[in-house]
Amino acid sequence: MEKIGLQPFMQGIYKLEETQNLRCTMLGIGPMSENLIEAVFLLAKQKDFPVMFIASRNQVDADEFGGGYVCSWNQDTFRRDIAKIAEKCGYQGLYYLCRDHGGPWQRDKERNDKLPVREAMELGKRSYLYDLKAGFDLLHIDPTKIPDVGEVAPMDMVLDLTMELIEYCEEQRKALGLPPVAYEVGTEETNGGLTSVESYNEFINTLVARLKAEGLPTPTFIVGQTGTLTRLTENVGHFNADQAVALSKAARVHGVGLKEHNGDYLSPFILELHPALGITATNVAPEYGVVETQTLLRLSQIEQWLYDRKMIAGQSQFYQVFARASIESQRWRKWMVGQVRDYTVDQVLADQELAAQVVEICGHYTFNDPAVKAEIAKMYANLESVGLNPHRIVINAVMKSIERYVDAFNLEGITSKVRAVLGQG
Q1: Do β-strands 221-223 and 51-55 pair in parallel, antiparallel, or remain unpaired?
Q2: Please, which pLDDT band fits residue 236 given cuts at 50, 70 and 90?
Q3: Do the beta carbons of residue 179 and residue 5 sit within 8 Å?
Q4: Average pLDDT of the segment spanning 77-106
Q5: What is the pLDDT of residue 230?
Q6: Which InterPro entries does this chain map to (predicted)?
Q7: How many CB atoms lie within 10 A of CB 114?
Q8: If DSSP codes are grouped into helix, strand and coil, which group holds residue 266?
Q9: DSSP class of residue 194?
Q10: Distance (Å, rounded) from C-alpha 263 to C-alpha 282?
Q11: Euclidean distance between CA atoms 141 and 238, whole angstroms
């Protein structure tokens, strides 16, 4: 079937809203593992919705920057492997490769090294060029993690850097003879400065005016702070429905959709409100990694139970290897709260309860660790020896986690409806 670009697809969404009073919220999915991608495609095949894979620079990036922690993917291998998984699943629907939080200082090392503006911008541009050459459909332009500028990055500086990056990407896209790409701007981070309706309005009004004056495309999405915040395995923010409505209206004046980040772990009530509030798209990532981790840990418990009763001949060292790799990765610092963020690895290892919590939260960062993969393979083989299908158990668990968003966001059947309204049915 003919692919529809992301921006035209969103125009189809708006047309459905205007002509049929049909509202939905698009779902951006963090590509946490190959299992997650398989689960998404199987569900999308069943429920007929488009898939947006939102990859951060830490997850997927060029080899010159160290690649990504997810499957060691760079942009080309990311695209290649996703296509292979789609073919394996028999999925022929729409899917979009999206850069989440692209640009300067968006790799942890660049931020920690406090790179100067020009150096960080050069690295961000090079990363975008790899995105473009790999056929990414959406680029999130986010130059807000500027070191040493205080709690909130100056809006004028963010606007200038955003303009420079979009102009660069458009120049490169045209030089390469590539089709149009969609853009996302803004950030949910407090240092981005878009935490109020007033600052959001000022940013989008000024940016759109400057883009039009330079003949550059209007963004497809602008990120706004709806009050969501993911920590541990819950959403610890305070969702503000009234603010979401105000932000949505401000964006739609310019034909731009409100994008929400950190949609993980929200209640069914809040999720089901999303389409009515005008939230055009929501990103969810850590929750899916945690669900896969929880399922693997449960399988490990099943393996232990079977081994204790001599129902299987061998036992993997999955938990021991997985736990140590997860804790030593130190990725958990981002998701923890309070003093625990400053604990040493040895302190976490010595606290059995805390160690278990850390493994659950950030185990997904180690799925690609060779030692972890080897132990998963051993555990699967042990479980398969008594007739279980551990791979299917993992896929089903992740599918259920994704499905609650698809159902709440009114996405089932939306691809066919958009094709019809655009005259491609």
Answers
A1: unpaired
A2: low
A3: yes
A4: 98
A5: 66
A6: Aldolase_TIM (IPR013785), GatZ/KbaZ-like (IPR012062)
A7: 11
A8: coil
A9: -
A10: 6
A11: 26
